[in-house]
Design a protein that fits this description.
Blueprint: E1 3-14, E2 17-29, E3 32-34, E4 38-41, E5 45-48, H1 52-72, H2 80-99
Antiparallel strand pairs: 1-2, 3-4, 4-5
Helix pairs in contact: 1-2
């Protein structure tokens, strides 16, 4: 699910009773496309949208980055740098699977 929807409610005491009224609906997305080439997500993240062949290259590059972090820089699986790099690798792999 890329989006979430929920009701906006207003609560008040009316004649000694607690009353809740729906005043609208709110939506939030996990990601959205801006223009034809940017994928955005909450927190101000904005990344270029990649094509399938570019995604394969990006996956290989990210895997190499993880290997470098672990083998050359000595980081472990639980270090924040490795966790962040693995999360990005998984995101790229998900995009590649969706593009296939």
């Amino acid at each position: 699910a890329d989006g979430h929807r929920w009701a906006l409610e207003k609560s008040a005491l009316v004649d000694g009773k607690f009353v809740t009224d729906t005043i609208g609906v709110a939506y939030a997305w996990e990601k959205w496309i801006v223009g034809e080439d940017r994928i955005c997500s909450p927190g101000g993240e904005s990344k270029p949208m990649l094509k399938a062949d570019e995604l394969e290259e990006a996956v290989a590059k990210q895997a190499a980055t993880i290997r470098e972090l672990k083998e050359e820089q000595g980081f472990g699986n639980k270090d924040p740098e490795v966790l962040e790099a693995v999360a990005e690798l998984l995101r790229l792999k998900d995009l590649l699977a969706a593009a296939a």
